[in-house]
Amino acid sequence: MTVSPEPAVGRGPLTIADTRIRARRQTARWTDAPVDVREAMDFWAFAAGAANVIMQLSWPQVGYGVVESKVDSGNLLKHPWKRARTTFQYLAVAVFGSEQDRAAFRAAVDGAHRQVKSTPDSPLRYNAFDPSLQMWVAACLFVGLEDTYQLLRGPMNTEQSEQFYRSAWTLGTTLQVREEQWPPTRRSFDDYWIGACAQVHIDDVVGGYLRDLIDLRMINPLLRFPFHRLLKFLTAGFLAPVFRDALGLSWSPAKQRRFEWLFLLVAFVNRFLPLFVRQGGSQVLLADVRHRVRRNRPLI
């Protein structure tokens, strides 16, 4: 038996501004041509990885499912590089992969998810196969990629927004999310998203896990020292207020301005990078998945 996350106590009605990042948008797009989620998979999107983990784990059942997981090989704090590889490989397979690639990765993830379920000692009930939890994770992935896309390329018009949204459904259907679970239109997704964000809550247990993540406690101190401040800044910048507040991360107008100017610069540079540079990492990860399948090696 599974239950839905409890709504956070004491929070008023949420708006889109509460649940999406605010960043200065470019004044013009490159083109009004059709868009696709694949265009969001530039390597800059990796900078939002930790923020997206926080978003996903901010639903208590997802958070406890990760913190209490018995799948030691996938523990982010124990095997950070392996977990990073498998997470980004999932995105590469979901966005660029064939149906055969997705089926292989789905089988591998399902094998791990069978072990992710609550015990009598767990503070709440959860199961990794709960479709509502998988939909939440997929929605977080979509929001993260849509925000990143618009930071890099500017806002989409209504038609492009619908195209982008529909092309992103594989972020969920690569696992157990059914197409009919996705809200049918981009506007109806906003209604789902606001309601889902009202159930965000991060307690001390999950919060401690996430703070260790953004402080890079799991890697060698020599690597941690030069990068953990930058990661914390980027992570807080990529989080909407509802998630930042739930984790207790500080933010200020000055930090917001620095974040906006940083991505104006990044977006400018990105325009001149060839596709194989911007998306080469995803293609390498996808090639590794196919190599592992051919050699019958584990994917996760």
From TrEMBL:
It comes from the Bacteria. GO terms for molecular function: oxidoreductase activity. Signal peptide: none annotated. Residues 42-266 form the ER-bound oxygenase mpaB/mpaB'/Rubber oxygenase catalytic domain. InterPro entries: MPAB/Lcp_cat_dom. This is DUF2236 domain-containing protein. It comes from Mycobacterium vicinigordonae.
